[in-house]
Amino acid sequence: MTLTKADIAEKVRSHVGWNKKESGRVVDTLFEIIKESLQQGRDVMISGFGKFSIRDRGERIGRNPLTGDPIMLPAKKVVTFRTSGKLREKINGKER
Fold it and tell me: 15, 23, 44, 87: least CB-packed within 10 angstroms?
């Protein structure tokens, strides 16, 4: 099952007691702050969760899936995510 932005807003609403509109606005604002920080080239680290970073990916050779012909894929920036140790332990059932 996928957790959507609406699901997150609903969980915030039920935990904090805000109405649906307020909790949705908070979740939207949080994601906007994260996006803006990444656009500016800044890492986003959320303690106990993980770190979002921007990485440069160089130009490389790929293949056209229809013809199999090699093509040059342009350089670009990608977002990477690295989990915190605490989250990794929790996922693997080794919580302290």
Answer: 15
- State the Cα–Cα distance between residues 64 and 50, nearest whole angstrom: 35
Distant-in-sequence, close-in-space partners of 34: CB < 8 Å, separation ≥ 6: 44, 52
Alpha carbon 26 to chain centroid, angstroms: 17
In angstroms, the CA 36 to CA 31 distance is 9
Contact between 63 and 71 (Cβ < 8 Å)? yes
| Closest by Cα among 75, 77, 76 to 41 | 77
Tens-level pLDDT at each residue, the chain (96 residues): 899 999 999 999 999 999 999 999 999 999 999 999 999 999 999 999 999 999 999 999 999 999 999 999 999 999 999 999 999 999 998 865
Structure tokens at 58: 């160089």
